Amino acid sequence: MLPRPLLSLLLTATLVSAQSAAPALAGFNATTAAKEFDLEKQFDGTLSRQNLDRWLKDFSSRPHHIGSPGGKIVAEKIAALLKSWGYETEIETFYPLFSTPKTRLLEMTSPERFTARLVEPPVEGDATSTQTDGLPVYNAYSTDGDVTGQLVYVNYGVPADYERLERMGIDVKGKIVIARYFGSWRGIKPKVAAEHGAIGCLIYSDPKEDGYYVGDTYPKGGFRSPFSAQRGSVLDMPVYPGDPLTPGVGATKEAKRLERKEAQTITRIPVLPISYGDAEPLLRALGGPVAPAEWRGALPITYHIGPGTATVHLKLEFDWKLTPAYDVIARMKGAERPGEWIVRGNHHDGWVFGATDPLSGTVEMLEEARGIAELTKQGWRPKRSIVFCAWDGEEPALLGSTEWAEQHASELQQHAAVYINTDSTGRGFVDIGGSHSLELFAGQAARDVQDPTYKVSALERVQAAEYARTGTKPGEFTIDPLGSGSDFTPFLQHLGIATLNFGFGGEEDYGVYHSNYDSYDHHVKFEDPDLQYALTTAQLGGRMVLRLANADVLPLRFENLSKTVAGYAKEVTKLTDEEREKTANYAALAASGALRLAADSRKTSIPAPVKPPVPFINFAPLQNALAKLQTSVDAWSKADTSSLDSARAMALDAILIKAEQSLLDERGLPSRPWFKHMLYAPGLYTGYGVKTLPGIREAIEQRNWPEAEIQIGRVANALGALAAEVDKATAATH
Amino acid sequence: MLPRPLLSLLLTATLVSAQSAAPALAGFNATTAAKEFDLEKQFDGTLSRQNLDRWLKDFSSRPHHIGSPGGKIVAEKIAALLKSWGYETEIETFYPLFSTPKTRLLEMTSPERFTARLVEPPVEGDATSTQTDGLPVYNAYSTDGDVTGQLVYVNYGVPADYERLERMGIDVKGKIVIARYFGSWRGIKPKVAAEHGAIGCLIYSDPKEDGYYVGDTYPKGGFRSPFSAQRGSVLDMPVYPGDPLTPGVGATKEAKRLERKEAQTITRIPVLPISYGDAEPLLRALGGPVAPAEWRGALPITYHIGPGTATVHLKLEFDWKLTPAYDVIARMKGAERPGEWIVRGNHHDGWVFGATDPLSGTVEMLEEARGIAELTKQGWRPKRSIVFCAWDGEEPALLGSTEWAEQHASELQQHAAVYINTDSTGRGFVDIGGSHSLELFAGQAARDVQDPTYKVSALERVQAAEYARTGTKPGEFTIDPLGSGSDFTPFLQHLGIATLNFGFGGEEDYGVYHSNYDSYDHHVKFEDPDLQYALTTAQLGGRMVLRLANADVLPLRFENLSKTVAGYAKEVTKLTDEEREKTANYAALAASGALRLAADSRKTSIPAPVKPPVPFINFAPLQNALAKLQTSVDAWSKADTSSLDSARAMALDAILIKAEQSLLDERGLPSRPWFKHMLYAPGLYTGYGVKTLPGIREAIEQRNWPEAEIQIGRVANALGALAAEVDKATAATH
Q: Rounded mean pLDDT of chain A?
């Protein structure tokens, strides 16, 4: 679902890089580590690029979105393969609400007539692009609507853009807005537009970010061509993902459902994505002031904001249906600790052919499963249980993963030690995000696979890139905190299961995201030509699963977590201080009269309102909790886990499995109780982009100071609970 | 010559803002100041917008470049007016070399045939645009040439761009380059291209900086239309401006001249400016790698670098002629101190109709002259002599001003106290640059004229804008140091006469710079609709002239100068330290091997070479000289000049007139002896953009450390000489 090249744009940088001195392999001692390395060598020997290529070509040969005949075929093929390798395999089916378009009409009625084509034409050299039975360009979970209104350009359509519009005296009430992609996850755009009174929303791909400005367009190059558009979900997933009718519970046949109109996550206004080919006549027709420099894209026009004579008519009708989602679940029972599960997942549904997204990741995960199954033929058995999951319906709303996680919540919280996710993967650099309790583990895994181009470790290569980019030699490897955009969300942010999400990328020419052209032909030309990096992804993913399954003790460590969260605490403190200073400075500027004198008298320029002063906030509970946590972690760092007997190791594992869950608060985040993790969440107004310490940070951003103090208390409690778990873990080693 | 909106982009910010407590009017005491304020009120009363409008329309009604019939008419009309108001007026004629085009051919021969049109078509609503006898689009002082070669896009064509090309493995040797305007003064582009072995150079206006990206194009809006192009000089003026055949001496009929081929300032390769309409097919045809993000403009193409199949043929032939330049010189003799001259100038030649550039400034200067003459009818006479100058041939090479300054060098150094320059002026904010000995004076002048829109002082308004932009309340008014781009250069940088250059701007829609459309119609629609700001410019210019002419003592002060230069000294020290650190860091990065691993193996990526370490430089002579200067200035600050008798005041004036000249070094700057000022010069590789402490700064930038130390010594000597002058001035007050 999330385009990998965008991931780095959305993720906030982690502040902490130092790590404590690492054992050779977290969770293993010298003897068991040596055995593990041997096993991994065997594992690598089983992997085959031919499989990746064959499956990628086959699965992407027809549309395979949720509810499609092709989707069912892909799920069944995956299940058959896993079964054939010896996994206990089932297809678990859920019935979430899904919408497909019946009517899509966009026309400009003034100053001249123009009807958007809304069709992605066939392209030479792209074999599947001639098929016409895939989903057309639309936004899933847009409401139905038939609206006519003046058009207003709102840049990325995020809250700051509407503040800017206000200062130009422009109101979108009763109007249809056109926003460009980027700047936020797409679902934020219709949400914010509706909050400001707009009656309809268009989202287009500007060539500046996603077209000829970036590079040659398909099929000459890999970038977005004039009539290609980005499908995608606009469900308000930062409130809750999954079936809009069954929040918090599995969408089984018999589940109790909301009425559609009660569903909080469906948009309030109709919304349609369009190509830049379709957007250009509309934008060219806009009157009103010239857009600010940062708002301008790469179309050969003067960007205006409107409103004016440009009037558009948007009519959308959808088929709303409970649609079967086929999750493929394949289990391999652990030999010693079958009640501890290592869960590994990637979705299998695509918007159309979905070769890169998600199949590049789906097929490499399958190859991991095959490779691991091969090892059992030589007598090896995992210590812990392994569960491979191929999710359906990720694209519309993380449907398959969320419903499964909700349906099996209590057993997962009991048994699931770690969830490892992938989605699309491409050529370039390793990119890992997740729970900081797994940071050391993640770095060791990246250290032990080889970049196929340069034959150095993936870790060394990604750190070299950071060094070259920043000029500063990086310290220990760090991972990014996770927002949303793929199936890790329910596991991490709803259930509190320690999670990693990873892939390779950064050297693709990926301009076909969520389009008809995300095809096998495009993938092997512009993404990962010989699937070398997909193979490396399989080596890395397989290693993670094997290590987690085999470790003497689960490799969850708290040193990096404690340091990272201390960094986040500094950030939110600084954010408040900066906001205080900014508010005071702006009040002085506004009072000085300078704003009026600075303005061009011929242009409307309404000064931003002066906001109330920012009070001083009590961060002490957070600071005290962090100090306590650090004390607990220091003691834990000295504990020796290298020679525990099996019973004591299992007892320790049981504590470690629960550790991440201590970071949940059952009340959830303000206005979105489904999100319970106190450290990581997607931003309510960024969508995929992560907010760390989300309750505190968003309260500060919204200037809700009493709420900020409440949230400081909750985070402090969660960190206190974690410290108690760490103390228990330390005690279990004695 | 210099487009005012660009000025702020080129000027480096001054570091110093604090000023010493100011008297009400520098150079006056309380009694004489009161009289002066009364006189200025009278002066304001004489000014008329009708005159501005009438002259602007008349002078811009036909092409009036140097050597044209229209240019002669304009000079004669100006002379007649000045004479009619009572000035002793003469037209002083020089005979510099000037080139006009005979052949202009640009065609693409491969991959397809295309011939550039090189013509600016008539435009509805622009009365003069139908005339065809103006200079077409070309670059004056391009050499003749007939070349064919592969085309390479070099971004702005500055040295850093060629370094980037090298890292992509692209060589321009034997090729024709196409550079976009901006990023440097245009003359730098063919110079650097030739230094890298290119055989021809095209310069085009990208719509990103100068076209539809900025705003609506002419005639709908004021910005550059697809087939409008920027004429302009490419003479290597940072080496020496003025006639290329007579460096350092006036180009009189009998002057000794160089052969054309000996002239160091004429380009070595042919160069032609083109419109974005003509550039688009060429750029679209380029192959090779995709241009780096910062290199991309706003044309609807993927910017490539080349080389490849795109081959162009450029043929240019010029008519090289000694061409009469008509300088109008008008004098009003001082009543008390006729040997002290206040020189005020603006050019009168335009590239075509030149309504904004230069006539907006020319006509307001004329109105100043008329207003001052009016005052004499009421019995007032200036204490000092006033000289109004309307220069010819500024556009090709500051010809009229430079030749006049060279011809009259010794009398000017003897008599000229201050030179005040304007060029085009527009709507918006006051902008003043010049000698920091005039900073206090400049701020007081800006304080005493009213912004016509807001009825607050021009000073208050420009400071409000700075406050609104930066969020920090500005301190005392500061002026920018001057590079080049208008007629102040010979006075300040060759002769060491204290100089100011000023105008209003920032609210124009100025997209017709050096085009056929710089017309009366454009000016009154998009520049300064009712000429309100031109009138304000006349109020400000007139005030400056009157104050300088009437002051008890010349208002040259050294407090701000000393602080400002101390700031520059800190900058060059920091620059060296930063370069040292950067060099060391890059050497470590290069040695680490990270650069190789960070690169995409499919793209050519040649690491920049490691440079030798940066030694520590002896800045002590500079620091000691600054300390001495500050001591002298402190004593000077305490001196009382408010009640000197006339003889002693004249004696003090004589010292002050020479003060700025103590900042000259007769050897001039390295490789360009014509430029003698040790504090200010146009950059050898920026063109118009100023370099402060140019000898030191450019030696550091070129990593010529021994030269840097030599230049430190020379600046220290100059500052020592200035300190001695300041001491003399102080002594003269006792």
A: 95
Predicted confidence band at B197 (pLDDT cuts at 50, 70, 90)? very high
pLDDT tens for each residue of A511-561: 999 999 999 999 999 999 999 999 999 999 999 999 999 999 999 999 999
Which domain-ending residue is among A317, A341, A372?
A: A317
Does residue B21 lie in a domain region?
no
pTM of the model: 0.95
**The token pair that represents B107 in the structure block:** 């065609």
Distance of CA B722 to the CA centre of its chain: 25
* Contact at CB, B215 and A468, closer than 8 angstroms: no
Instruction: Inspect the interface and report whether the beta carbons of A461 and B597 lie closer than 8 Å.
Output: yes
Structural domain harbouring B531: 41-96+324-550
B295 & B373 share domain = no
Find the CATH number of the domain harbouring A598: 1.20.930.40
Give chain B positions within 8 Å (CB) of A589.
Answer: 467-468, 471
Are B191 and B181 in contact by the 8 Å Cβ rule? The answer is: no
pLDDT classification of B605: cutoffs 50, 70, 90:
very high
- Which two three-digit tokens encode residue B672? 């360009």
Confidence of residue A483 (pLDDT cuts 50, 70, 90): very high
Handedness of CA B336, B340, B344, B345 (dihedral sign): positive
| Nearest CA-CA partner of A568 in A715, A437, A686, A469 | A715
The residue-averaged pLDDT of A18-38 equals 79
A305-309, A409-413, B532-536: least confidently modelled range: A305-309
Cβ separation A300–B596 shorter than 8 A: no
B598: chain A residues, CB-CB within 8 Å: 461, 464-465, 467-469
Compute the nearest-CA separation of A695 from chain B (Å).
30
Residue A10 has pLDDT above 80, yes or no: no
How much of chain A exceeds pLDDT 70, in percent? 97
- Between A686 and B360, residue with greater pLDDT: B360
Say whether B454 and A594 touch across the interface (CB within 8 A): no
Distance CA B196, CA B198 (A): 6
Q: Which helix or strand (DSSP H or E) is residue A501 part of?
A: strand A498-506
Nearest Cβ partner for B301 among A212, A301, A463: A212
Query: How many domains in chain A?
Result: 3
User: Which residues on B lie below 8 Å from A292 (Cβ)?
Assistant: none
| Sign of CA pseudo-dihedral A62, A67, A73, A78 | positive
Confidence band of B555 (pLDDT split at 50, 70, 90): very high
Contact between chains at A213 and B302 (C-beta distance less than 8 A) = yes
- Residues B338-345: what's their mean pLDDT? 98
| The two three-digit tokens of residue A440, written as one number | 């050391």
Per CB-CB distance under 8 Å, the chain A contacts of B456 are 597
Residues of chain B contacting A600 with CB distance shorter than 8 Å = 428, 507
- The answer to whether the peptide bond before residue B226 is cis (omega within 30 degrees of 0) is no
* Chain A residue numbers touching B216 (CB-CB < 8 A): 290, 302
The closest CB to that of B594, out of A213, A468, A600, belongs to A468
Chain B residues with beta carbon closer than 8 angstroms to that of A219: none
Q: Which of A296, A302, A453, A456 to substitute to test the interface with B, most B CBs within 10 Å? A: A302
Q: Which amino acid is at B457?
A: S
Task: Give residue B212's pLDDT band: very low, low, confident or very high (50, 70, 90).
Answer: very high
* Tokens describing residue B379: 């019995």
Asked whether residue B471 is domain-assigned, the answer is yes
On whether both B273 and B361 belong to a single domain, the answer is: no
Inter-chain contact B469–A585, Cβ cutoff 8 Å? Answer: no
Q: Taking each helix axis from N to C terminus, what angle separates A69-84 and A361-377, rounded to the nearest 10 degrees?
A: 20
Angle CA B143–B147–B150, to nearest 5: 125
Answer yes or no: is pLDDT of B9 > 60: no
pLDDT, tens digit, 9 for 90 and up, residues B268-287: 999 999 999 999 999 999 99
Cross-chain Cβ contact B588/A473 below 8 Å: yes
B464 contacts A594? CB cut-off 8 A: yes
